[in-house]
Amino acid sequence: MTGDPTTDSATGSEPVSKNLVTARRERVLDAMAGAGIDVLVLGRQDNAGYVCGMRRLWTAGTRPFGAGCIVVGATGRVHALSSWDDGIEPPMGFDDLYPLTWNPRIMAASMASIDGLAGADRIGVDELTPSFRRATAHFAPEAEVVPADDLIAGVRRHKLPGEVEAIAESCDAARAGAQAAVQAGDGADPVGAAIAALAARGVTVPSSGVRAERRGDGLAVDVGVICDLYEGGVGGLFVDGRRAGSGVLADACRVGASHGDLSAAATSRDWLVRGLGMGFERPVIGPQIGIGEQLEAGMVLSVTDGNRRDVIHVTAHGPSVLSDRP
Amino acid sequence: MSGDGAPVDEVAPPVPDMGRMGSERLGRLREQMRAQGVDGAVLMHGPHVTYATGHVPEAVDASHANHRRAVAIVGAADGPVGLHAHDPVDAVASAGAELGDPLWPELDDGAAAVGAAIAEVLGDLTGCRVAVDGVTGAMARAGVLDGAELVDAGRVLGPARVVKTADELACIDRSQRHTEQAMVAAQAACVPGATRAQVAGVFLAALREGDSEPGSDHRNEIDPIFQPMPLRRDGGPRTSTGHVAFPTGVDNPVFSEGDLVWVDAGVGWHGYMSDFGCTWVPGRGPNAAERSLFDRWTAVLEASLAAVRPGATLGDIGRAARAVEPDETPWLPQFYLAHGTGLESAEMPMIGTDLGQAFDDGYELAEGMVLVFEPVIWADGVGGYRAEEVVAVTGDGWRRLGRGHHYEPFSK
Lengths: 326, 412
Prior knowledge:
The complex is a heterodimer.
Chain A: H1 16-35, E1 39-42, H2 45-52, E2 69-72, E3 77-81, E4 97-98, H3 104-112, E5 122-125, H4 130-139, E6 144-147, H5 149-156, H6 161-183, H7 190-200, E7 206-215, E8 218-227, E9 230-239, E10 242-243, H8 248-251, H9 259-265, E11 271-277, E12 279-285, E13 300-305, E14 308-315, E15 318-321
Parallel strand pairs in A: 1-5, 3-4, 5-6
Antiparallel strand pairs in A: 1-2, 2-3, 7-8, 8-9, 9-10, 11-12, 11-13, 13-14, 14-15
Chain B: H1 18-35, E1 40-43, H2 46-53, H3 62-67, E2 71-75, E3 81-84, H4 91-95, E4 97-100, H5 111-122, E5 129-132, H6 137-142, E6 149-152, H7 154-162, H8 166-189, H9 196-207, E7 218-220, E8 225-229, E9 260-265, E10 267-269, E11 272-273, E12 276-280, H10 288-306, H11 314-324, E13 338-340, E14 347-351, H12 357-361, E15 370-373, E16 376-379, E17 383-386, E18 389-393, E19 398-400
Parallel strand pairs in B: 1-5, 3-4, 5-6
Antiparallel strand pairs in B: 1-2, 2-3, 7-10, 8-9, 9-12, 10-11, 13-14, 13-15, 15-18, 16-17, 18-19
């Protein structure tokens, strides 16, 4: 990748979000070229959002794999499944869309009309189903289908400055939700109070959602939301309105930190350090997982240690707490 | 309205038996597996895990659900199902399954444990026919399913799921009633000057009321839709259908007096999805032209329902609906006149999709299928009316699921 469009202010009038979409797309195209992947077929909503910035109706839980978004290296174009152009960000336009269909034959025809797909040698996918493998034989008969989830996860591991800013804004919303839960009066539903506070800011999409539970004198609260495609979160045990618990694990999130370092810093058996960006990302480091991982500058992490959760940006100068910014 | 014309709105919903529901579902799944020569199933799609085990994964973002996947491993022969979940598993689900450690099928260093968990239930996969929801990159790189012939899990789950047991219907009924109840508060909040998110917030908070532990039972599964519609087809985003874009699910509009607001929401109870749809008018009552849209909508619904009975084809019902509105298809072209609901909110059977007339004419209704009717009546310049009605196919017709009568400010 050459340069970083999110820090380039030469264009001045360009909105940051447009620069960010373009920068993410270029990173993915560069990674494809490096890995010899001609076409990427993305079924995961977050991967599609990363490449094209498209906002869609949010639904909970896993979804069956399908061709939600297609990136063609040869043309540099990104195509997405949608019957309308609402929620589409430039540089993508209406002509880059293929319509929603229930009919596999119509879907195959849409695929066939995408420039550069039929001649692809290697198609990368972020998940694979038996039926999709069969379908590729029709729209790209010569292609080898290979897993490319790690390619896009690798790109997403390190955040652009504009992404860090977007995550910090989402964290700000999450904090407002947590604060409303903590300040809910006696007998009031703290989760309901958090939901109302988030809604007042226009936020209704959960990542992990809002949880609140009385624990002795305190209220354990965790809020995870998604605003404009980026996740924010915060959690803790609040006693008399103040957050209790240790930030030691968050402070251990430094460049080069290993699984052993994080495990030693954790004060609870229930700890998890995982990538946070357009939702749940890599690395994932916990008691039983991520043994070989090492933290790198540019990662943004959700750091859970018992009830406490912070969002940390790992920088060369140490951890920067995004979930507790003034 | 009901199948025999009797009022049903005060009939208490039946209480489902969760244990019986679980064993009947697993029986139906295994029957399909044996009929199709499928030796084992490795299920990682939430609704499929629920169908096989009763465990309902939390209603979180897909990125979270993908990483913290619940995995169910089912052999075609009788015996325990392997269930690996990150979320707590309730008593009913844990009674019917062998619980194992949580798995991380997304991660390369989690793949070996996935392979071991599969082997524990299914043994050596060489030469076996295995149904899968998907193969993650980590599973593919580790060769976890090498040697097996893979088929889509939907091929066995689809036919098993399409006809609901009495308990499944009771779950949908309850979920629908609860959604209708929470919508009362949301409708009161849908006034000129309010935003979509504010109304959604009122709905989401109201959903928590009446749960054994607030929020424990009913899980919101769709960012609730309260979309003010344009008055003309070309008044909104550009579409490939030439009709209006719905549901777009983006932005946070402020409602104005007289907007026609299309409402759509889906809430899970034990995984079973409600589907609530209607049209609201903030700040005033509907005018005569808008009321005539509703009258035409009602006529399409009544004609459709009159054709619902076991043995009728989807094509019969689509024709009955079109006969009332001969000039234009009375539903959105990218969707359907009706779809099923169950563990997902848009299941088979679907009537009037782009699968085409031959598909619809070849598909017969059976007792226990569910249909969510969602006709749309549109008049350029006036706008559109859309609402949804959930019914189950009975031995001789249909019955409503949910309390119904949710058409205010429109009504006969």
